[in-house]
Design a protein that fits this description.
With 282 residues, the protein is mainly β. The protein contains 3 helices and 18 strands. The strands form 4 sheets. Strands 9-10-11-16-14 form a 5-stranded antiparallel beta sheet. Strands 12, 13, 15, 17 and 18 form a 5-stranded antiparallel beta sheet that branches.
């Protein structure tokens, strides 16, 4: 069982290296700020036409806003060991959140940007989060007990009790289990379409509700949580299934809690969002 889990993890880490080695296009639009999340704090951000495109960077975040209604230019980002050649293209449908994956296979993935982040890179007067990229050094290895349990869940038939479908792509939360001081979530992305599905990021929220007269539910609190470890191959080819493993610090649940999972497609529109009751934890 241990070999199964570590083969799964090793395959993921080895496959991420070339995902963004090639040039890619980032769509932007006047009046919108496109957020580019880098795997490390950029030491160099250069844009070809600085008069037509405004660029700001804060921490791991680079924000781009065009000053023209049409046109394009190139952008170069050097972030630690990684470098990216991008093309900024003014379009009617902008990319609001772009997550650059590390080009080195042993680098952790960056944290997904907060959708409530303001255009200056801050939220409610605070600096952006560095996320799991800065936590990686402090992470401990998954315990032998947890490896054994999680490996058995990977072999358990997937029930798809909680799933959502968009354009023949399914996101399912297969298992949610607490082991020792960690919470593990195992998800599946099933691509039944004819187009490859590239995972941009997966975001998690705890949502607490209050019931009114037993008929209506009202959100009273939302808390975004970040995994301390994550293992998955972001490229899901047509007709295949991708398995995703996320490790969180131990969380508390109540009968009024739900977990919201959002999987965003890289440079696409097939986003997948599902809610799972806290009672689903095993």
């Amino acid at each position: 069982m241990r070999k199964i889990l570590w083969f799964f993890a090793a395959t993921i880490l080895c496959s991420t290296g070339s995902v963004l080695a090639q040039q890619r296009t980032v769509k932007v639009k006047p009046g919108f700020a496109t957020v580019i999340v880098c795997p490390a704090v950029p030491e160099l951000v250069s844009v070809g036409n600085s008069q037509s495109f405004t660029v700001q960077n804060s921490g791991n975040y680079v924000l781009v806003k065009p000053n023209v209604s049409s046109g394009s230019t190139n952008m170069f980002i050097k972030a630690g060991m990684d470098s990216y050649n991008l093309v900024l293209q003014v379009a009617d449908s902008p990319d609001l959140e772009i997550r650059l994956l590390p080009t080195s296979p042993n680098r952790p993935l960056p944290a997904a940007p907060d959708k409530d982040m303001k255009s200056d890179g801050t939220k409610n007067g605070t600096s952006p989060k560095n996320g799991s990229a800065n936590k990686a050094k402090d992470l401990e290895e998954i315990s032998p007990k947890a490896r054994s349990i999680i490996s058995s869940y990977f072999k358990t038939p997937r029930r798809y009790t909680h799933s959502v479908k968009n354009s023949d792509v399914i996101l399912a939360l297969d298992h949610m289990v607490q082991v020792e001081d960690k919470l593990y979530m195992i998800c599946s992305v099933v691509n039944n379409s004819k187009i490859p599905y590239d995972i941009g990021y997966v975001r998690f929220k705890f949502v607490d509700h209050n019931r009114s007269l037993g008929l209506f539910r009202k959100k009273v609190k939302e808390t975004e949580i970040e995994p301390v470890r994550e293992f998955y191959n972001p490229a899901v080819k047509p007709g295949t299934t991708g398995r995703l493993l996320f490790v969180f610090d131990k969380q508390g649940f109540s009968d009024k809690s739900t977990v919201e999972v959002k999987c965003s497609e890289e440079s696409g529109r097939r986003d997948l969002v599902l809610s799972v009751p806290g009672s689903y934890v095993q």
